[in-house]
């Protein structure tokens, strides 16, 4: 078993502390011991030297991450050893000193200086300086007491004379056995010189000439950076006669050119202009010019050597690459010197590479001369592609990058992997591993933040992009053969031509004049370098690689194209100060597989035309039905004025609803088409439309995005209108119970049955056939728990190996409709097939049964002349206010057929009717309401407690009683009415009246028509949420979809949908309750 020992017995430090504490005679000693315990328990921090640089007398000991003293004097950075003027001998150490790590290893001796001799180069011998050959005075050397080294008396730095400086270097002389015997001087070749410490300036440990750094070495003759340079008498490197010096010594080595290029003025000027930033949108300048020290350093040499080509053995090809790079860094602006010079050279070149007219000999291919449509519709790629491994097909694409430095050095060819995510580093990412988006059809989008200051220390490269055409026979066994690489055109959106931006493509149709190029960079930290530092950094804000299949042959490709949009950070705002964080910017890398969809959208436009025509017909029918139901009030001026405003509002709402019903279905069908055929295809048949992020209206997904937003707002407005309409409905309860003697109520009838029916209706107002909670839990389970939200990723399968946040808006909508519809169908099937058949009756049936048992009928007027009548007059002879035993007996007698039918005429079983009320009937009802509430609100009813509207509590019971008596006489036809408008007929609706909700013709035709009752069991539920279940479901789907478009998160979208549902339900319940209290003359305190 485990022993429960005190902690301090398991830790020696804790044990020491507790022992000393027990012996402490005073508090002060105890506190001292506490400090001792803290010092014993804390781990010491490690002071790391800045940039791992140590003082001159020390080296960095990486074993302990500290600066340590050398065993002897330090002669080179990071290296311990004896000074070159002393002898160096190895020391034999004892075993113990080597074990302990205290062995010195070597010792230094200065005995040579005592003898006025110097150490040999191998630091093993002392040898003299003076020459033993008096016949050769130029080779003699003498000992220097200050440096303890031989001296050749080289001239000091003097004024410039334009002549070569003459210096001599020290050389060792050896005997027959190979041992050094003395040091002599030897004259340096013409143009070279020996560098001594006397030339060091400004405390430097090196000497700089023509941009090259030299360290002092009396044994070495050094040359200038360029073969046409020589050391002048001031030790500066100057060009020989007839040559011009080129370059900036402050950033690199200078060189000599024998001819000035054709364009040799203003070559250091670089223009930074961003066509996508307005002046008022950014604090940084978006159009400015800098004098670039990089351009000043590179241009003259590159332009001259490229223009005056001297064969492939020289550096002319590199210079041509460098000149081209300067043109690319100037956004191909033909008005800039680099591009002007390149055009001059290109016109003079005759031969071309690979039969490409634009690819001139010795020059890189920069421009496409063909029109944009011709470039992007070329059919020169022969390989066939597929989604999976097949014979003679390619399912994983391969791209190659030709890589160049700014000064034109060809670095080599490398595979395209993660280079375009140049400012993003993820743990464990292997740059050599091919990314998943190279698998055909797997689109990808990655948006991430980049700190601009991270780009300052990186080396800049320029690239040419190629697609490997693996079908070419010449590619077998060698994927770098030029005839299997297909050049990928580049659309530089910042390209400048004639001071305009032809590739900006800000409007529809602007892409017709696009200019495609070849070379590009992903960031530029060189163009903005000036004499004062880095003043601007240009970087690729968006990089999009588009791969598109051919229209007539989906298994083959059009030329891929790379779209690059650059942005500029200026004025050094990227630097992080102590109190300010570094500037971050959002970058986008995207790979998009798509197909041309002109034919598809042409068909969609035709279908939209038909749908609009169909929508107009439906809208006309619905508005005609509404208008014909209102014509009975047309003679009333007040009603006519109200009708006009109401008609306009209703027309707008019906237009919104019709639009939603048709276009929601239309969008769902289109998105389901893309979802099914894109996700389930085995051969290349269909790819998604292009999602052009650089366009507005011209983006193919703009149709879906705009449709979803418009559908959401139209449906939201319509749902709000329906809530207002339902909360304005007239709800009238007619109690058929006869007065009882001895009762204290005004009419002798107890009100508890009425309160029971009213409360049941109140609870039913905001109920739904489906459970929104179940639907959302179902969606959350599959979307988040199972990960089915990834179905919206633009990949032609359900493997979900891409970016979770990379979703397609059309696939996402189809996926949303799928799971919401599945949840709704499951609940509907459960209710229809099982629950409402074997467990509990539908809400409408239960409510009608309750009304019958309570002997109460209900009038629901949703419009002035349209409503519903629920005939609840009890078929039992006994009173409804009876004991439970009597009630059960009545129900049993009814079940045995011993009572009359529940129907209105006592014969048929119909109890629920659509009511088309005449204006006479409507005015009678309004008269009673106006008597009780002369200033009733139009849209929402006021509470019974609100006395500001002129309520008279004494009038309400009387108005309620008279209203009940009027409706009872109307239903019983007793006494027989004298006017047709107070009569009614009961008949089955015609087919058109039932399907299209058409107003009965006999109701429309007569000046004073009779009221008409159409039997209909469930339509009265349209006065509650139960009757608009489909509209609520559509609203839930649209709410979730819009939230998902906004937040890109399934969990947040579900929460937003539920909150909208709660708000919607609360408004309907709160105002519905007040309306019920107001219209039924039941105090709100009795309603729950």
Q: How helix-rich are the residues, as a percent range?
A: 25-40%
Number of helices: 23
**Could you say which structural class the secondary elements and strand pairing correspond to?**
alpha+beta
Provide the low-confidence segments as ranges: 1-10, 576-580, 937-950
Largest sheet, if any?
A: 6 strands, mixed
How far apart are the first and last residues' alpha carbons, in Å? 65 Å
Radius of gyration over alpha carbons? 47 Å
> Which descriptor suits the 3D outline?
elongated
Provide mean pLDDT, rounded: 84
- Estimate what percentage of residues fall within beta strands: 15-25%
Features:
single chain, alpha+beta, 23 helices, six-stranded mixed sheet, disordered N terminus, 39 strands, 1088 residues
Map the helices and strands:
Layout: H1 7-10, H2 12-23, H3 27-41, E1 58-61, E2 66-69, E3 74-76, E4 79-80, E5 87-90, H4 95-100, E6 106-109, H5 111-114, E7 118-119, E8 126-127, E9 142-144, E10 149-151, E11 168-174, E12 180-187, E13 207-209, E14 212-214, E15 229-231, E16 237-239, E17 244-246, E18 255-257, E19 269-273, E20 287-291, H6 293-307, H7 316-329, H8 337-348, H9 372-376, E21 399-405, E22 410-415, E23 444-451, E24 461-468, E25 485-487, E26 490-492, E27 519-521, E28 523-524, E29 529-530, E30 533-534, E31 536-549, E32 561-570, E33 584-595, H10 598-630, H11 637-679, H12 702-727, E34 730-735, H13 752-764, H14 772-785, H15 809-839, H16 843-854, E35 856-861, E36 866-870, H17 884-895, E37 912-916, H18 919-932, H19 955-972, E38 984-986, H20 991-996, H21 1001-1005, E39 1011-1015, H22 1029-1047, H23 1050-1080
